[in-house]
Amino acid sequence: MPDFVQTAVKEIEDQLRILKDEASRLEAARAALTGGPRRRGRPATNGAARTSARPASRNGRQAAPRPRRGGNTRANQALELVSERPGITIPEIAKAMKIEPNYLYRVLPRLASDGQVKRDGHPTRTLA
Question: Within a domain: residue 10?
Answer without folding.
Answer: no
